Amino acid sequence: MNTENTGQRPDASAEPIRFDTRIAVLLRADLEPWQRLNVTAFLVSGLGSRVPEVIGDPYEDADGVSYLPMFRQPVLVFEGTKETLRAAHARALARALPCAVFTADLFTTGNDRDNRAAVRAVRTADLDLVGLAVYGPRNGVDKVLKGARMHP
């Protein structure tokens, strides 16, 4: 409908929503497919728990059945080398962006307490990162992910 001729305002709910923020996951390229999925799920759960503005409203189907809310915006998934992950991690910390990490050690633990202990036992510069999730302004996240490529 041409709103210029009718004088009517366009329906704002029909326009695409643009976000000035970005949720991104960076995975090490040498992970197995099951590891990529597992790491991504763990990483984004960290953002959802600490950055409440990323969570949208609950869902409901036509029968009135309610479902949990999810992120309000897409999650972009990237991949890179071990060095790309290390550099991205350093840039995320330097920019003080909310981030979650997943290290190779977490594949050998079986519970949350051991996961946290495994990360706590290693100095920041020595973390064997296999995944990183980051949230923040689009341009800041883009700079953090410099050198990474979109996941195939």
What's the main sheet like? 5 strands, mixed
Uncertain stretches: 1-9
Order of helices and strands: HEHEEEHEHEHE
| Helix share, percent | 25-40%
CA(first)-CA(last) distance:
38 Å
Walk me through the structure.
Helix 3 (82-94) packs across helix 5 (138-144). 34% of the residues lie in helices and 22% in strands. It has helices at 3-6, 33-50, 82-94, 112-120, 138-144, and strands at 21-28, 59-60, 66-67, 75-80, 99-103, 129-137, 149-150. The termini are far apart. Residues 1-9 have low confidence and may be disordered. The longest helix has 18 residues, at 33-50. The protein is globular, with a radius of gyration of 19 Å.
List the helices and strands and how they pair.
Layout: H1 3-6, E1 21-28, H2 33-50, E2 59-60, E3 66-67, E4 75-80, H3 82-94, E5 99-103, H4 112-120, E6 129-137, H5 138-144, E7 149-150
Parallel strand pairs: 1-4
Antiparallel strand pairs: 1-6, 2-3, 4-7, 5-6
Helix pairs in contact: 3-5
